[in-house]
Amino acid sequence: MTDIKSSSPGQRPSADDAPALALRAGSSDPRTLIMANLRQSGIFVALVVIVALFAVLTDGVSLSPGNITNIVLQYSYILVLAIGMVIVIIGGHIDLSVGSVVALTGAVSAVLVIQQGHPWWLGVLAALAVGLAVGAWHGFWVAYAGIPAFIVTLAGMLLFRGLTLRVLDNISLSPFPAEYQQIAAGFLNGLLGGQGFDAFTLLIGAVAVAGYAVGGFRTRVARIRYQQPVESFPLFVARVVLVGAVVMYFAWQLAHARGLPIVLIVLAVLVLAYGLLTRRTVFGRQVYAIGGNLPAAMLSGVKVKTVNFWVFVNMGFLSAVAGIIYSSRSNGAQPAAGNMFELDAIAAAFIGGAAVTGGVGTVVGAMVGGLIMAVMSNGMQLMGVDQSMQSVVKGLVLLVAVAFDVYNKRRAGSAR
Fold it and tell me: Is the dihedral of CA 346, 352, 358, 362 positive or negative?
């Protein structure tokens, strides 16, 4: 790997020198770069391979504008849950109750809006309040009572499923008013016009690509300033162009379907917000510290109980968001809603690179893991694969992902 040199030996490049150095520093060996970050690079390669595989097996149907839109709508609530779940797992915990919380929050919203006739926004606020209360309940028992999260959330899974049945009185409620349905089934289309396509969707895609390029360059400059390895500038440009092409293709397909889904905007805001939270805030660094080395975190002054409490409050909040999205998409509330959602969210986090022992994982990785599960499920449905076989495939993929994590740890240990 090419050395990153500063103006003086052993001295970091200055803030003024780093941008210029970013244009010529770095390694040109793709294999070295991939192996240096095998956990994250592997899932992106896997996603590309799986998308290409199902595109071939379905004769391109999986990449049609309508199907891409359906993937966004059908799996958005799992991706929302995956954001919260990866933070819980990074902190060294697990949450088995999120599916039941999705059902409970949707049920509370349905009772208020459908059964009692309150405004749709009051149902949304009530669902969020219930989610926060559930998160505080779990956080108290885990952080302050010292009960393992596995036990607390297993109890919560049973408790809140039972409460869902009580709230709904064992019946389904539907339909929601049109405004509530727009949360998960609405689109922004025609804001900027366009002949046969939605120009606004393409503009949002272009802004996303520009933001990715600028953010990537700033990260590159920061790494060079601290003498960390980076890829060569031509490889950096190639990566940005490749990602940009994928994003614009995705935006082009959405623009030729029904426009920009409102739920995709909600998901993008959550990804950006939680990406910043985990990478750029004290709270985020403390979560990684607790999951990576609890005794060291305690000795360094991290308020472990407080951090753990808010980790579960946050999980409750995101479970409520997922519950709102799911009830909006299904246009009602059912006693069995959210069944097995927790396993999909956990699988997304682990496939996306989270470590079983905690301390490792990213929001972006969880999103990619969730997309892998979504593309596989959607592709197998298009092919008419039996539901039992779909479960077998998902289970094997999760097992391989965890085995890959174990392999990485052993490889890192033997390299020391």
Answer: negative
Identity at 330, one-letter amino acid code: S
Please report, as a single letter, which amino acid is at residue 305: K
Amino acid at 9: P
Name the residue type at position 212: Y
Element (H, E) at 167: helix 149-168
User: Do 83 and 274 touch, CB atoms closer than 8 A?
Assistant: yes
> Three-state SS for 301?
coil
Pick from 352-356, 405-409, 412-416: least confident? 412-416
Q: Which residue has the tokens 């802004």?
A: 207
Instruction: Spell out the residues 6+ positions from residue 186 whose beta carbon is closer than 8 angstroms to its own.
Output: 261, 262, 263
CA angle 315, 115, 98 (to 5 degrees): 15
Say which residue, 34 or 213, is predicted with more confidence. Answer: 213
From start to end of 35-78, where are the E strands? none
Would you place residue 48 in the very low, low, confident or very high pLDDT band (cuts 50, 70, 90)?
Answer: confident
- Tokens, residue 117: 């006739």
71-110 in b/e form (b: 16+ CB < 10 A) is bbbbbbbbbbbbbbbbbbbbbbbbbbbbbbbbbbbbbbbb
Q: What is the pLDDT of residue 231?
A: 73
Q: Using CA of residue 229, residue 234, residue 236, residue 242, what is the dihedral sign?
A: negative
Render pLDDT for 330-365 as a digit per residue (tens, 0 to 9): 999 999 998 889 989 999 998 888 888 888 889 988
Nearest to 85 by CA among 377, 314, 289: 314
Question: Which residues does residue 231 pair with via DSSP β-bridges, in sequence order?
Answer: 27
Cα three-residue angle 222-224-226, rounded to 5 degrees: 75
H-run or E-run covering 260: strand 260-261
Number of neighbours of residue 381 by Cβ within 10 angstroms:
15
Give the whole-angstrom CA distance, residue 113 versus residue 55: 41
What is the predicted pLDDT for the residue at 411?
A: 66
Question: Per-residue DSSP letters for 128-166?
Answer: HHHHHHHHHHHHIIIIIS---HHHHHHHHHHHHHHHHHH
Interhelix angle 65-90/233-255, nearest 10 degrees: 130
DSSP-derived letter for residue 112 is: I
